[in-house]
Amino acid sequence: MNRLDQISLGKIVVIRERLLKAQRDGTKIYRFESGDPSFDIHPNVKLAMESALKQNKTHYIPNNGIPELREALAKKLQTTNKLNIEAKHISVTNGAMHALYVLYQCIVGEGDEVIVPDPMWTEAVENARLAGAKTIGVELKPEHNYVYRAEDIEAKITSKTKVIFLNSPQNPTGAIIPKKELQKIADLAVKKNLWIVSDEAYEHVLFDGGEHTSIGSLIPNYDKIVSVYSFSKSYAMSGLRLGYFACRDELFNDRAGKLLRCTVNGINSVTQWGAIAALATPDEWYKEMNKEYLKRRDLFLEALSGNEILTPYIPHGAFYLWCKVKDGIDVPKLSEAMAQAGIGNAPGDCFGEAPSTVQSIRLAFSCSTEMILEGAAPLREFLKNYK
Ligand SMILES: Cc1ncc(COP(=O)(O)O)c(C=O)c1O
Fold it and tell me: Per-residue pLDDT for 269 more than 90?
C-alpha cells in the first residue's frame, strides 16, 4: 500500500475546475475559493532579486538556507516572535507547505497520533498522514468562537499521541487562539511531554484588534516545539515559495538537514535574497495590506447581512469568512450551485468531518477589493434566490 493513495488531491481543486468551466461557458467568476494574496511583492524585494541575479548568486547554497537569511530570520524570531531561537535552529523551506512535509517526517512515524483542529486547512493534516501518523480531530465549535481549547485537546490524548498541531490565526475559520488558551495548550504539551507544531503562516494578517502570540514564547526552554512560518501571506510572495521552521531540538534538526539534503537541497537562491529584503521592509507594508483585508471583510459582511442561509464568524485575522450554513441545507449542493453561478467557495467537507465543519462554507477575501465589490451583488442575489 502506498500512503499517497490515502491522500486526496483536494476538493477545492474540483471547485476551481467547476468555476473555470463556468467562466468558459461565459459566466463572470469571482475567485472567493482560494487564499492567494492579490498584492504585488514590494519593489525592494524585486530589486534584491534582480541584484542577486546580476551578481550571479545562482550557485549551490546550504541546504537549510543561506546564512544571511537565517541570521535575519533569527533576529526576527527573537524580537517579533519572542522565541528562544538562534540561526542554527532554523531551516528555510519551499513554502510552509514544504516545512510541514519535512517536520512531520522528522517527528512522527507509523501509529503515532497527531491532534489537529477540525476544521483545518487540509494540507497541514495530510502531511502528518503522509508521514504515517493518524490525525485526531478536535471540533472547533461556533459556540466557542471556533477557539481550539486545551480541555478539548486533552480529552483526545491517548498513549499514542505524539503531537499537538495548532494554527493561529486559523485557516479556514480566521479564529485567533487567545494568549491564555495558548498558555494552557503549552502547559498541557509540557505536562504530557508532547511535541507542538505551531503553524503561524498568518502571523501578520491581523486587523480590527487581532493580536498574534507565538506559543513558543510562552515555553522558551521547551525543545519539542516546531514553529512554522511563511512569506506567502505576510509579504504576498506566494509564488516565490519561501517558508521556514524553527526548533531547538538537536536530533530534529539533524533529521531535517538530511531530508532537505536528499530532497530539495536548498531553496531557490534568488528568492532567499528577496526574502532578506522583505524582512527589512517597514511594518507599514503589511499593515497597509491589512487595512485592505479589513475593508474586504466588511464588504463581505455587508453583502451577507440579512441573508438567511450563511451565518459568518467575524474574523480578526487571516483572510477567510467561515460561514455556518443553515441546518437542513445540503452544503455540497449549495457549494456546487454557487460555483456554477460563478461564486468561488470552499465547502466545509474540504476541511474536516466534524458536524459543524461539514455544515459550513469558506469564502476567501484575499482576491482584489474590486472583485469583492463586483461580486457582492451576485452573492446577495444568489443567496436570496437559493431554494
Ligand atoms: C495555515 C496554512 N499554513 C501554511 C500554508 C502554506 O503556505 P506556503 O504558501 O508558504 O506553502 C497555508 C496556505 O494556504 C495555510 O493556510
Answer: yes
